[in-house]
Backbone:
């Protein structure tokens, strides 16, 4: 019996027995094999010197065939970064498939992320443990963490751990950085004669781990559906109470995918999209115009979505921040900073409310940089629009949704997707490949039609300047403002400004296929 | 077709056809009659002079019988105050029953609350309109507002409107103040030979409109379930990410019912309950101890629930605020206030972070009073606990949930309850009673077992000093810290502090009776 059985909620108890829908092929991993596929594009040539061993590694499609023998495998697994719904199902899918292939296989969970590898902190996952988290939210069975395995010492420590445990494979469930890390480890292990293979699984609620090969990471759907539920409720409140503008900031540090998905789901009066790269002044004017126009139409309420990463896209704010970082790095006292700024940047600085100015000058990260993510963009916008509209009566309420959606119960989509990814990882392990990420395609279709791939991670990578050094990275996928999905939003945007065409999706449902099996709206069809 | 049909979400579309479960008696209002019941208690004698006409009005139980003839009635209805899930179903129940009784009856919705009555701003509700909002959230079909009908001019204007419309009855759907208002109007209409009767319906998500007769208002269940969903998600995140204390403030200006309900549903590490009347210093120490103890147990995360009204229960803060109000009313400049405070109050004032001090001195309501509700209690507590634990590494995240739960889709409980209340109001209209509030009892049981009452509002009322005057009010019901429900929480409280017994209720479900038909946990059985 699960330790907290008495405490488990009735809905969770029900969800434990949900049987994820998966592609028919994945039902019998033992009868599958891999087939090399031609690459979508050649890897970036400069990566060859950093990744000599995996640089030319192929990607695979999955098909019926004999494949390798299903010998007993000892597999490590870890979560990296923020939680995402469906994570426990990756563990369940991996566990089930490993045991089906060979009952002597073992699955070792490293605790609290990569730190568990460095510190040899782990627990072997049992059927009882897995059965206690099927289709449930969170990463709490083994925890997660943000430690990276990057330095020479860390790489050596990781190699020591996987050798000590005699791991055949290590599965890393994480975002862009963690999958980059998976490639680095795969290469390092090959170079150092460590026989452990490394498999990546794409996770992030932000939805910015996307490419031609990877349509979406798991967790995005459930998080967006939870935010959309709340946005819908708030929009209905705005329309019922008729007295507030709700400024709703949504997680997504880099890209605006979450905001775009929620905008399509709920039809707010305005959804800002960072990737449009408007200036702060333009955005303030845009919102002020909206409030004015709605006032003329007798509407003193509204709903505005603000992506968390918005401020970093604003050209003049970006310049200001880089200038500030430079000046502060020279050890200049914060009080002197304003006078040292170039005219254009000083103007931007002066536009900001005092509280934000103070934050920029005094709240710095360990590297001395301005902590852009700490800036309450939703409050900044309210303050500046209030200044712009000082003669107009209107009221605003700020909100920020993030933690609410990372550990929700996975939607059927994420429960299916996570479980399928776990089983696909087991196939990668049976077939003894390394440096690949599990990729499932045609996600907008029903699971029977999903296509299975193991994509060479190197294919997703490029080089980027970080802290003055060329570093191999998987670039975060931004919202393509020339793409089909954004065009879909553009089509309704101006109508939604004035007319209240709010859509109220309601809470995630699990028990009626008409409403429980929907897929993300931003998945390209 | 509903105007926004194209925009309606799939779940809403499904919900439109949900058939609320109601007590069998309510299925045929035409065959019902009323029977006087002896009062639970005598009305407060001092009310007699204010309410000579309705002072001795009886309460009723509903039973089978002939009752009055079902003549055509013209009925007005309005929402008052913040929205609550189930409100549209009150309209639907009222509409359906009125039309069943006599197809020539009319239902007029006054727009945006009592202001609609004062301004004769209304629309007649049609079957099409009602069919477009069945089982949906919000009050947006007719809107709501906070205008009260209190002054002699307002009372006269209301009388003029109901006469002009030839209303047989006016149904007021609202909280304690609005139902007080209903009694005032009922009395006024009787005294001024206006034939319109007034019926109250108990609404408020806060759950503080409770008495021996009224077990609960509609909207509480859905709001609490929405908050509990989010609290559960955040608790799971805390346990997965292991790095934050989440301070979650929950709506409920006066009483802590919402917090208590959510605490029973989710088992946070601590739920503060205003009614315990602890001092600010005690609460800060309590939280600091909790953080310290959990740190010793290797846990650097946690979940703490904070009722919105907490600060007004703290004895020393209450004193400080009343002192501040006095000094500020004398026109003393804010800068001089600190020196004018008595020693004990000055000490309390100095304990507060500067931001809160400034709020107390400068943010005043139109009457010059300190705006206690504007104080971000969750941030205040974080700041003070940080001060107390300055040598300890810990991080906190504030949250505030309120608007998220007022306009959600009604749970099956609130959909049933709201619809039943609407039908019961129609019976009150058929039977031509006035000054009564609709009351349904045994709500913890299934709808077949609910008991139906029409309670004379005067019985719920008492006199209270407000702004130096004796005013008739329905007292807000606070959490009874000597009662059974609080004892139930006390039983788990200390264990929940250290052990993580978080319970994750998940989103409201509608399609599986095992999980969709639950009732509030704080309903006494």
Residues:
């Amino acid at each position: 019996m699960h330790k907290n059985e008495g405490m488990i909620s009735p809905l969770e108890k029900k969800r434990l027995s949900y049987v994820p829908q998966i592609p028919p092929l994945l039902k019998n991993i033992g009868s599958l094999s891999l087939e090399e596929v031609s690459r979508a594009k050649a890897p970036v040539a400069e990566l060859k010197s950093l990744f000599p061993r995996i640089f030319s590694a192929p990607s695979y499609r999955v098909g019926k065939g004999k494949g390798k023998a299903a010998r007993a495998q000892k597999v490590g697994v870890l979560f990296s970064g923020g939680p995402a719904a469906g994570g426990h199902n990756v563990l369940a899918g991996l566990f089930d498939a490993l045991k089906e292939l060979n009952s002597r296989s073992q699955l070792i969970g490293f605790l609290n992320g990569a730190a568990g590898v460095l510190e040899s902190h782990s627990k072997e996952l049992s059927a009882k443990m897995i059965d206690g988290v099927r289709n449930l939210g969170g990463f709490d069975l083994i925890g997660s963490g943000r430690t990276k395995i990057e330095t020479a010492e860390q790489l050596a420590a990781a190699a020591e751990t996987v050798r000590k445990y005699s791991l055949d494979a290590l599965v890393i469930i994480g975002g862009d950085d963690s999958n980059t890390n998976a490639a680095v480890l795969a290469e390092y292990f090959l170079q150092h004669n460590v026989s452990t293979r490394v498999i990546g699984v794409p996770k992030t609620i932000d939805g910015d781990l996307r490419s031609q090969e990877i349509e979406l990471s798991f967790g995005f759907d459930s998080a967006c559906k939870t935010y959309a539920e709340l946005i819908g409720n708030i929009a209905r409140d705005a329309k019922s109470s008729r007295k507030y503008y709700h400024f709703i900031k949504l997680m997504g540090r880099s890209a605006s995918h979450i905001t775009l998905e929620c905008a399509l789901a709920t039809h707010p009066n305005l959804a800002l999209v960072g990737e449009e790269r408007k200036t702060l002044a333009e955005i303030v004017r845009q919102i002020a115009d909206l409030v004015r126009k709605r006032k003329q139409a007798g509407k003193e309420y509204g709903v505005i979505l603000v992506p968390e990463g918005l401020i970093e896209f604003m050209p003049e704010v970006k310049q200001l921040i880089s200038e500030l970082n430079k000046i502060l790095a020279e050890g200049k006292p914060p009080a002197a900073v304003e006078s040292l700024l170039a005219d254009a940047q000083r103007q931007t600085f002066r536009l900001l409310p005092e509280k934000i100015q103070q934050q920029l000058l005094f709240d710095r990260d360990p590297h001395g940089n301005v902590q852009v993510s700490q800036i309450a963009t939703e409050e900044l916008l309210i303050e500046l629009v209030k200044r712009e509209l000082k003669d107009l009566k209107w009221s605003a309420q700020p909100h920020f949704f993030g933690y609410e959606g990372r550990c929700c119960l996975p939607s059927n989509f994420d429960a299916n997707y996570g479980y399928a990814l776990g089983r696909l990882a087991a196939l990668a392990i049976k077939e003894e490949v390394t440096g690949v990420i599990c990729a499932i395609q045609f996600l907008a279709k029903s699971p029977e039609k999903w296509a299975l791939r193991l994509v060479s991670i190197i294919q997703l990578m490029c080089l980027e300047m970080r802290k003055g050094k060329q570093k191999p990275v998987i670039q975060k996928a931004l919202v393509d403002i020339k793409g089909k999905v954004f065009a879909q939003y553009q089509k309704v945007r101006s109508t939604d400004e004035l007319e209240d065409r709010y859509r109220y999706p309601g809470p995630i449902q699990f028990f009626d296929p008409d409403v429980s099996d929907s897929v993300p709206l931003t998945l390209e069809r």
